[in-house]
Design a protein that fits this description.
It is a single chain. The protein is mostly helical. It has a domain of about 40 residues. The radius of gyration is 28 Å and the shape is flat. The N and C termini lie far apart (about 75 Å).
Length: about 160
Amino acid sequence: MSELYSADQVQQILQRALSKRDHLGDNLTREQVQEIASELGVSAADFLAAEQEWRNQQQEQGDRQEFDRYHRRKFLDTAVTLGVVGSFLCALNWLGDHRITWAVYPLLCFGFILTLKAWSTLQPHSQGYQRAYQKWLRDRKQKQFFVGMAQKVTTKLGQWLDP
């Protein structure tokens, strides 16, 4: 009687087997992957759907990484800005009174703002982070749309002006 494997076990065995192969190099062509899927009984439609789902997942992962870099850069920009303004206010307060008095209040507010920004930057599953990510995606898609339209208009104008 033959041994039966679950889908998870099959995936683990195949991953280990593929990692040990030397003669094919590290990469498989799309046709090779499609052939393997066909030999495993995966229909062409299921393969295409799984491939598209994988591509979408890769795109979203890349978008999230780009957004994380953007979000951290914005946090650092805010921290530097608040640090410069806070230092200026402390210096102004020191020069006027030879002690720090009223400048403490804006510094406390800046600290609170930085704490909230740090929380939203470092908590990728929070609601604020998700809202910021969705807004960033919308803004990026709009920018891509307008850049594409501007390129098309420029191309058409160039064709129209150059006979």
